[in-house]
Structure formats: C-alpha cells, structure tokens
Design goal:
Blueprint (H helix, E strand, L loop, with lengths): L4 H13 L2 H8 L3 H15 L15 H29 L3 E7 L1 H18 L3 E7 L2 H9 L5 E7 L7 E8 L2 E6 L12 H6 L1 E3 L6 H12 L6 E4 L4 H10 L4 E4 H6 L6 E4 L8 E8 L6 H30 L3
Parallel strand pairs: 1-2, 1-3, 6-7
Antiparallel strand pairs: 3-10, 4-10, 5-8, 5-9
Helix pairs in contact: 1-2, 1-3, 1-4, 2-3, 5-11
InterPro entries: HTH-type_LysR_regulators (IPR050950), LysR_HTH_N (IPR000847), LysR_subst-bd (IPR005119), WH-like_DNA-bd_sf (IPR036388), WH_DNA-bd_sf (IPR036390)
GO molecular function, one term: DNA binding
Family: Belongs to the LysR transcriptional regulatory family.
C-alpha cells in the first residue's frame, strides 16, 4: 500500500499542534484542505486516525505510527530547504581546491581554518598541485579553484586568474647560520653550503636554476629533497643548509623563529600567486565565497608582508 507523503506530514502537524486548524497554520495550509487530506488518508488505510470524542485530538495506535513517519518527512523536507538556501547563499557546499604545496601549507591552510570558523557548513577538499595539474583538473571539472603561481604567459582564454600576491623569493636558512654574520655575502659562500631542493615540478625549481646561473654555478650540493614544508623547515633548523623559499612562506613562519632570511639579492621570478578559475559556465556560490575570503585576506596581508620584508631582509624600518 502506497501512502501520500503529504498526508503523513499533515497528520503529524495536526497531532503536534493539537488541532486541525493549528496544524494547517503550521504548514501554511487551509483548515478545509487538511481536513480533506486526513479523510483521504483514513479512507486509504481503512482505519480511524483519531479516538472518537476526545479533545484535544488523540491519535489511534496506527495514526501514532503514521505520524512518526510524517515527522521524519517534515524534518527531511526542512533539511532539503535549508540545503537549497545554503547552496544559493554560498553558506553550504563543497569547494574543491588545488594549489602549490608550500604556499598552501604556510598561508592558505590558515585561511581555510578562518573561513570554516565562520562558514562551518562548507567542506574544503584540498589537493597539492602545480600549475599544469591545476589547469588539467579545472578543465576536467575536478577542481573549483586553484592557488597557483602565474608568469607572463597566459593560461589561455578558458581561465580567469586573480592576483593575490606578487612573487618574491629569498634564500632561507637557520637563524644561527654562519652566513648571517658575514658581510658581504658572496656567490661563493652560497655555492659552498649544502642546499635543500624544492619539490619536483615546483616553480621554485626553476627559480633555483636562475640562482645557479646568477652565481656562475652549474650545480649545487643538494643534501635533501622531496620533503614537505615542515620537514624542510626542520632540516634548515638543524643544519647549515640553504633553501629558496617564497618570502610569504617565511613570513608565515616568523613566529616559531626557526627560519631566517639571508640578506643576499637573488634573481626574482616574473610571476604572481593568485586564484585560477575556469572562465564561463556556472560557478558554485560556496567557491566564490571562499575565493572572496582569500582575496580579502591578502588585501590586508600584503602590506604586512612588505613591511616585514623590508625590516628583516634589508634592515629598513
């Protein structure tokens, strides 16, 4: 026997409200319409729904069971309505995010935490990717947003790129590194130190090659490679190794104080960090909401990063 779900919902509302008129008002319906529905349900099941002569209305054992199912339907309907409203407003949903590893770990992960504290109904699904992987994932509808480094070359007409921070690299080392006391620091000093290699495929790898060319070297003494940001920081803190890192990453690590910036001018990449999205087509409100959060956070952060850079690298106030 198939029952009309709306009839079950109306039965539950009438019993919970204590009367047909009250139940109809709860559901935004008229009293005659609800009375008809209850009569139809009673005829369908072939059993009375209410104990005769009782006021307020008292359910029969069968009606009590049917009302319990009606309450489940009402709750599911309300949850569905909330889900639709949340999706449209961008306060509920899934955001699939991919980005360059060190930058994601040092800065974006904290912004994700801040965002989810305000928007607890939005799920962030993060992947580590460099630019080619991000482009492929966006094209394949496997990502909503990418956090990548973009140079002068455009990614193509199918994408939008919003800059959030200019690219700026530094040579990083531990705070007590011997070169921190040497002036001036020369190219041979850098060549004599062990180095930590960037992740394969990272833009930092090409930046390291530019540093090699600038100091007239064809190779460096790579002593560690393939590690996460935390492992790179730990290696730097315990050795005299050097590493090329984005200054924004070093800025984010300033409070623990394990990593310092070597005051040595290195070639700078002609690129910026930013948010990449697929151009055209529908955009998910939740992903737009998160992108707006990141953009706003960097609007206030970029000035603090610039002041810190001047102070710690070149000793300016």
């Amino acid at each position: 026997m198939r029952l009309n779900e709306r009839h079950l919902m109306q039965l539950a509302a009438v019993l919970d409200a204590g009367g047909v008129s009250e139940g109809a008002a709860m559901l935004g319906l008229t009293q005659p319409a609800v009375s008809r529905s209850l009569s139809m349900l009673e005829a369908r099941v072939g059993e009375p729904l209410f104990v005769k002569g009782r006021r307020p209305l008292q359910a029969t054992p069968l009606a009590a069971q049917l009302a319990a199912q009606g309450r489940v339907i009402i709750a599911a309907s309300r949850q569905a309505s909330d889900a639709v409203q949340g999706f449209v407003k961008g306060t509920r949903g899934l955001v699939r995010l991919g980005g360059v590893p060190f930058f994601m770990d040092a800065i974006i992960s904290g912004m994700i935490g801040e965002f989810q504290r305000r928007e607890p109904e939005i799920v962030i699904q993060q992947s580590y990717m460099n630019l080619p992987e991000v482009i492929a994932a966006l094209e394949g509808d496997q990502l909503d947003l990418g956090i990548v480094a973009m140079g002068e070359m455009s990614s193509g007409p199918g994408f939008e790129f919003t800059e959030i921070l200019p690219g700026r690299n530094v040579v990083a080392c531990r705070r007590g590194h011997p070169l921190m006391r040497k002036r001036p620091i020369e190219a041979a000093d850098l060549a004599a130190c062990p180095w930590v290699a960037p992740l394969p495929g990272s833009p930092l790898m090409s930046d390291l090659q530019m540093i090699l060319m600038s100091i007239g070297m064809s190779d460096l003494n790579i002593r560690y490679s393939g590690g996460s940001l935390m492992s790179v920081v730990n290696v730097l803190a315990e050795t005299d190794a050097l590493a090329v890192l984005p200054f924004s990453v070093v800025f984010a690590l300033r409070d623990p104080g394990h990593v310092a910036v070597l005051p040595y001018q290195i070639p700078q990449p002609n690129r910026s960090l930013g948010i990449m999205r697929k151009a055209g087509g529908p955009r998910l409100p939740a992903s737009d909401r998160f992108a707006g959060h990141v953009i706003a956070a960097f609007d206030s952060l970029r000035h603090a990063i610039k002041r810190h850079e001047s102070a710690v690298i070149w000793g300016q106030s």
